[in-house]
Structure formats: C-alpha cells, structure tokens
Amino acid sequence: MSTSEEVTYWKKCNTCKKPLGFGALYQVCSVSSCNLKRNTFTFCSVSCWAAHVPVYRHRDAWALEKKAPSREEFLRENPPSKASVTAPPPNSSPSSTFKASVPMQSSSSSASKEILIVASKLKDYIKQSSDMSTSAEVMETLSDKVRALCDQATIKARQEGRKTVMARDFFRKD
Q1: Among the residues of 12-136, which ranges form H helices?
Q2: How many whole angstroms separate alpha carbon 162 and alpha carbon 53?
Q3: Is the full-model pTM beyond 0.85?
Q4: How many CB atoms lie within 10 A of CB 12?
Q5: Alpha-carbon distance 123 to 120, whole Å?
Q6: What is the C-alpha to C-alpha distance for residues 93 and 145, in angstroms, rounded to an integer?
Q7: How does pLDDT run across 94-115, given as a tens digit for each residue?
C-alpha cells in the first residue's frame, strides 16, 4: 500500500478476497508449505480454508485460528511503501528505461504476494510432460516472475500512451 492509501484492513482472505480487519480472528493452514515466511495463506473462515485443501492436495491438514495484529502493530512492522512508478524522460526510448522504471514491490502488500498460478493445472502439466512432482514453492516463485513481467508490460503500455496491456507488451524490442 502506498503512503496515499489509507490502511483499512490487515490482509485479504486468500479464497474469497474478503478484507480481514485489524484484530480479527482468521484461519491459517496447519501445513508448513502454506505458512512460508514470504507468503502465509490467510482465510476468513474454516470454509474458505477448506476450499484451498483440494488445490494443494493436503493429506492431513487442519485450520488453525489466529488473531490479526492491531493497526498500530501492523504499521509499526510494515511502514507504508514510498515506491511508485516513475515516468520516463520525454525523449527516451522505451528500451532504455524499460528495466529502470519497474517499481519495487512492497513486502507489506498482500496483493503483491498472492499466488497467481493455478496450482492444480501447473502440477498436472509438469506431471504429464515430465513425470515429475512439483514443490509448493514453485507457485510462489512463478507468481513473482509473472508479477515482474506484468509490471514491465504495464510500463511499456503506459509509455506508448495506452491503458490496455497487450501481448506485444511482454516482448522487448532492443
């Protein structure tokens, strides 16, 4: 969240995207791969937690109830980010400012850490194409890569004066 945005909730539920308020009770998964330091899944209810279990194919899991931090605790640990997209100089070529103008992602933003990859489909694809298993950490890593590509594509579209990201924005012209 940027400094201009008012912090009104702690995180969003990973299933239904309902905002979880400060000091609210929430659920987490008992499986360690769902509680990585960089991305802990949080759920507003046991039913939202249960919806993620088939996707991640947990064999033995349960929901753990926790309490969200207060607004003051959250702001103390996660000060608002000052990162913003900087516009390129007027006469510069897109390729010269393409990488330099990609904003840094704030670790406090729950939206920037959501999993963007459909785990079951990716795991099925890897299993069918190579007969290999897929670690849960792959979803987080690929989501980070997809975020970086999207950030670059939105900057390129903006440089070309568009408000629509197109397929061509994902390929650099050198």
Answers
A1: 46-56, 71-77, 94-97, 119-130
A2: 40
A3: no
A4: 16
A5: 5
A6: 24
A7: 443 333 344 444 444 445 578 8
